[in-house]
Amino acid sequence: MMWSRVAAGATLGLTLCIALISAVMRLWPAPWPSLLVPAVAFFFPLWVAIMIICARVQRTLPVWGVLLVFNAVIFLALWSTRHALV
In this model, does residue 1 exceed pLDDT 90? Predict the structure, then answer.
């Protein structure tokens, strides 16, 4: 059963990390090319941290549910800032 939690962290954690870093890059006042190297450097440790947290949770279903909700919220926020900033 631990593999299902790690799979949740690997798949949904990947999209969550991409969305979180994209949101930070979108909302940061500096131009995005200056943030590219720090974003790439911060991506892997953040992804590994999410996978570790998912592996430490006792039950599988809450991991998938929480990651799905977080992904939906962050992608909705990205979508809304895209249409608000244009």
Answer: no
Distance CA 58, CA 84 (A): 40
Token pair 């969305």 is found at: 19
Q: Which two tokens stand for residue 61?
A: 């279903």
Q: For residues 41 and 24, what is the distance between their CA atoms, to the nearest angstrom?
A: 14
Query: Which residues are within 8 A (CB) of 43 and not within 5 positions of it... i.e. 6 or more apart?
Result: 17, 18, 21
The CA-atom distances, in angstroms, between 33 and each of 15, 39, 53 are 21, 10, 31
Helical pair 2-27 and 36-56, crossing angle rounded to 10 deg: 150
Predicted model pTM: 0.86
Here the tokens at position 70 are 């977080």
